[in-house]
Amino acid sequence: MKNTSTSAAVFEGVRHGLGLPTVIIFATMAGFGSLAVETGFTALEAALATVLVWAMPGQVAMAELRQAGTETTVLLLAVSIASVRFLPMATSLMTVIGSGCGRGVRGWGLRMVLAHLMSANTWPLGMRSAERYEPRQRAIYYLALCLVCITAGCLGTIAGYHAATQLPERLIRVLLFINPIFLSIMLVGAGERSVLISVVLGAALGPPMHLLSSDYGILLAGLGGGSGGYVITRIARRWRSS
Amino acid sequence: MSATPSLLTLVLLSAAVTFLWRGLGAALATRIDPNGEAARWVTCVSYAILAALVARMVVLPLGATAEIPLAIRLSALAVGLVVFALPGHRILLAVAAGAGTLYLFG
Predict the structure, then answer these.
(1) ipTM of the complex
(2) DSSP letters along A4-70, please?
(3) Which one of B47, B54, B58, B79 makes the best mutation probe of the A interface by having the most chain A beta carbons within 10 Å?
(4) Given an 8 Å threshold on Cβ–Cβ distance, is A230 in contact with B73?
C-alpha cells in the first residue's frame, strides 16, 4: 500500500534532506564559496550563484573562467555545456513525479520549480519515490527534500566564503570526496537491471571519454552507456519471451 | 558581448543558460509516455551520465582531491560500497566508513 498522506511526504522529504544530502551539499558548496572569494565575488553574489545556478560544475566553470578573463559568450557556452546532463535527468524525473504536479499554470509552475531545484544528490531519491508514494506525494516529497538541500547549499556557500581557508587541507579533501562515495552508493542501490547495466557501462566509459573530450566526454559516455544498458536489457527480454 | 558584464549579470546569465536544459527536459517529459520505451531509455541514459560523472570524480578528480593517490581513492570507495552491501544497507555508515578510510590513509 502506497502512502497517500501529504504531511508524511513533507516530513519524510525534510528528514531525508537533513541527513547525508545536507552534509554533502554543504561541503560541496563550501568549496564553491572559497573559490568565489578568489574570483572577487561578494558573499551575496556567491550565495545568489548557488541558489540561481544550482549546479556545481557550472558554478565552478563560471568562477574559474571569469578569473581567467575568458570572453563572456565562450564562458556562458562552457557553463551551459556543463549542465546539458540536466535535460535527460529532468525528463526521466518528471515522468516519475510530473503527473503529481497537477495541471494548468500552477502545475507547470511547480514542474519548473522542481526542475530548477533538482540536483545530482537528490535525483536518485526522487526517482525512487515512486516505490512509496502516489504521484502527488512524490512531487511534494521531492519539493521538501530539495528546499532543505538548497538552503544547506546557500549556507555552505556563505560558510565556505568566510571560513574555507581556515579548514585543514586534509579535511577539505575528505569533504570533497564524500560526494562521489554517496552518489556511487545511490547508483549501485538503484535496483532495476537495465539501470544497473547502464550504471556499470557509464562508469567504465566516463574517465576515458573525459580524457578524449573534457567538454562532451561525460555526456557521450552517458549516451553510450545508457543506450547500451537499454538495448542489452531489451534483447535479453525478447530472448526470454521467444 | 564586448564589455565585461558585472558579476551579478554574469550570475543571472549563467542561471539562464543552466535552467534552459532543466526546463526543456521537464517540458519534454509531458510529451512521452511515463511507462513507455522512450522513458525507459532516457532513464538509462540519465543514470549512465551520473555514473560517468562519479567515475570521473573518483578517477580524474579536480582540485584538492587529486593530491590523494588513486589507490587510496579507489580503496575508500570500495570500503563504502562493501559496508553498504552488508545487511541493513546503512548509507550513513557506509559513507562514514569510506570517508574515514580516506582520512586515515589519504
Answers:
(1) 0.89
(2) --HHHHHHHHHHHHHTHHHHHHHHHHHHHHHHHHHHT--HHHHHHHHHHH--HHHHHHHHHHHHTT-
(3) B47
(4) no
Q: Answer whether A173 touches B (CB < 8 Å).
A: yes
- Domain range list for chain B: 1-31, 34-63, 68-106
Tens digits of pLDDT across chain A (242 residues)? 576 788 999 999 999 999 888 988 998 898 888 888 888 899 999 999 999 999 988 998 898 888 888 899 999 999 998 899 999 999 999 999 999 998 899 999 999 999 999 999 999 999 999 888 999 999 999 999 999 999 999 999 999 898 866 777 787 778 778 888 989 998 988 778 899 999 999 999 999 999 998 888 999 999 999 999 999 999 998 888 87
Q: How many CB atoms lie within 10 A of CB A99?
A: 18
Report domain extents, chain A. Answer: 6-190, 191-242
